[in-house]
Design brief:
With about 150 residues, the protein is of the alpha/beta class. The protein folds into two domains: about 5-80, Periplasmic binding protein-like II (D-Maltodextrin-Binding Protein, domain 2); about 95-153, Periplasmic binding protein-like II (D-Maltodextrin-Binding Protein, domain 2). Helix content is about 25%, strand content about 20%. It contains five helices and six strands; from the N terminus they run βαββαβαβαβα. Strands 2-3-1-4 form a four-stranded mixed sheet. The radius of gyration is 20 Å and the shape is elongated.
């Protein structure tokens, strides 16, 4: 009879590699995960573990839908998408900060709707709602840092 496997969704990239090293140190190694190549699923039946490399924004979806038993996702992903998952532990790594950027000449007129370009639509909406600021969200997915100079009112 096959041994029960725990399925772990890991974010692709440096953070996922760092987290995998933690699993390995805790007794859940899967040496093939370190082999170069395009493989996305790695298992060690003896240790009872199967790892998946997935896009960071998809980790919580794999857990929420039951394809993975556990996953490691950034707080930004949990706040933005509010998946129906339980946060077991804040691993205190991979920190980021949300910030607001505008040209140096920008002066906020609270009487007008503020245009906000972001890929974190829900986080932005929640923040501006908390300060009672009317906004128009422009959803972007790449090169967000150029939005203040490229999206004119």
């Amino acid at each position: 009879m096959a041994k029960k496997m725990i399925n772990v969704a890991l974010p692709k990239g440096r953070l996922g590699e760092k987290v995998y090293d933690m699993f390995e140190a805790a007794g859940f190694p899967c040496p093939s995960i370190k082999d170069p190549g395009r493989k996305l699923i790695f298992e060690n039946e003896e240790a009872g573990v199967r790892f998946f490399w997935v896009k960071p924004s998809d980790v919580a979806i794999y857990v929420e839908r039951g394809a993975a038993d556990i996953g490691v996702a950034g707080k930004d992903i949990l706040l933005e998408y509010s998946p129906d998952v339980y946060e077991l532990l804040d691993m205190d790594m991979g920190k980021c900060r949300m910030c607001v950027a505008a040209p140096n000449s920008f002066v906020d007129d609270s009487e007008k709707t503020l245009r906000v370009a972001t890929k974190f639509v829900n986080i932005a909406r929640n923040y501006y709602d908390s300060i009672s600021r009317d906004i128009d969200i422009i959803e972007l997915h790449g090169s967000i840092e150029i939005a203040p100079i490229s999206i004119e009112p």
